[in-house]
Every structure is written in C-alpha cells, then in structure tokens.
Amino acid sequence: MENRFGFIDENLKRITFNINEAVAKYRNPDEKVSLMAVTKTVEPEYINYAVSKGVTLLGENRVQEYQSKKDYYDKSAEVHFIGHLQTNKVKYIIDSVKLIQSVDSIKLALEIDRLSEKSSKITDILCEVNIGGEESKGGIDRNEAKELIYQMSELKNIRVCGLMTIPPPYESEKFLYEMKMLYDDISAENINNVKMNILSMGMSNDYETAIKYGSTLVRIGTGLFGNRIYK
Ligand SMILES: *Cc1c(COP(=O)(O)O)cnc(C)c1O
After folding, report:
1. Nearest to residue 210, comparing CAs of 9, 27, 17, 51?
2. Which end of the chain has fewer beta carbons closer than 10 Å to its terminal beta carbon, N or C?
C-alpha cells in the first residue's frame, strides 16, 4: 500500500503538532516530551520511513518479533523494550536495547543486572507500575513500587531512570494524575543510584492528557501507523 507512507507522514505531523501544543498549554516551555513510535506488527519499511521523517525512538513489545525485525531497522533510532519480559528472554535483548521500560519484579531486575555485568555495562530501566490494579496487566502494585525501586537501586549494573505505566482506558485521566503523584513521591526520596527523569505514559488515545500530568515520553502505535493487523 503505497499511500501508507503519506498516511504515516500526516499522522506524524499531527502528533508532533499536538504534543507541542500540549506542552505549550500545560508545561514549561523548556520541558521536552519524547515521542516513541511503537512498532508491534509494523513492517520495518514503515518503521524506517517514520525514522526518516524524524522519529528517534522505537518501542518494542515482543522479543521474538523484535529479533526477526531488528536487523532491518535504521540504526539511527534508539530502541526501548516496553512489553512484558520473561526472565529467560532478557538475554536476547540486553545487548541491543537502550532501555527496558517494563521492569516490574526484583527477579527480572536481578537477571538484567547479572547479564549487564557480563556485558560490562549498566542498563537503564524504568519500573512499570500497574496503576489501575488490573489483574490482566503487568507492572508492580503502586503500593509496592517504592520498595521495589529501593531494592533495585542496590544493583550496580542497572539504573532506574523513572516509571512507566499503561493506565486503564476508562478513567485514564484519574490514573495519569495518580501516576504523577507517585512519580513525584518517589523522586522526592532522592534514592541513591536512581535518577528519576522519565515518566513514560500516554498512548494514542490519551497522550495529550498524559502530557498534562507530567509525561516525559509518550508511546504511540496506532495513531502513527494505523490499526494493527495481527497475522
Ligand atoms: C501497544 C502499546 C502502546 C501503543 O498503543 P497505541 O494505543 O497503539 O498507541 C504503548 N505502550 C505499550 C506498552 C504498548 O504495548
């Protein structure tokens, strides 16, 4: 479908415009909100097209899909892993992703730390919070997030850089606000070896509201590439 490129181009312009507007409306003018293109089910040619049009950050959900696509990616964009991650699959992504956003247990953090040490590096991570307390979703319970971050801060080869969440689609605004409160609360602890500077929240349907509540990184899939077609 040739005009899918034009479609992506227009979407990207609209989203960038909306992000800038939301920042102007709700935030300090010098605050930057990063745009991540979420790539699940999207073929590399369209991902690379988005990169050629200015996207600098990609989000990957599935280890296997990422494995099969990553060699075709334009290497100028950074990649974050954002999907549910099993401990035994960390080894497949540890060397190619810049940051892992979906860390929600000490077991997973320990494995990332162990493999990072083996590769002589420090891996940046976010703590994923299940702000809506939904059974079906990943993420640590909000009441356990601070304790988990204290535990993770002891690990020498990972660095916690902030929080990530996928709020329930209903009442998204209330949960985005509560995430901001939690983020500020944990930031105020000034935990050693933790640098809280990323609040990853906001997707196609709620990114402007997420920016209102302090998001520093919005993750957009369908709004940019169109509806996902699962094969
Ligand atoms: C799919 C996905 C997104 C993007 O969702 P859209 O509604 O398509 O924008 C963002 N974050 C995560 C973790 C996702 O899995």
Report:
1. 27
2. C
The pLDDT, as a whole number, for residue 30 is 87
Residue 200 has pLDDT above 60, yes or no: yes
Residue 183 has pLDDT above 80, yes or no: yes
Structure tokens at 177: 């606000």
DSSP state of 206: T
pLDDT at 38 (0 to 100)? 98
Sorted by where each begins, the domain ranges of the chain are: 2-225
pLDDT at position 40 is: 96
CATH topology of domain 2-225: TIM Barrel (3.20.20)
Q: Is the pTM of this model over 0.85?
A: yes
Distance of alpha carbon 17 from alpha carbon 227, whole angstroms: 21
Cα 107 to ligand 1 centre (Å):
24
Q: Is 171 left (phi over 0), alpha (psi -120 to 50) or beta?
A: left
Evaluate if residue 1 carries a pLDDT over 60.
no
Q: What are the phi and psi torsion angles at 18 (to 5°)?
A: -65, -40
For ligand 1, pick from 219, 224, 229, 230 the residue to mutate: most ligand atoms within 8 Å of CB.
Answer: 219
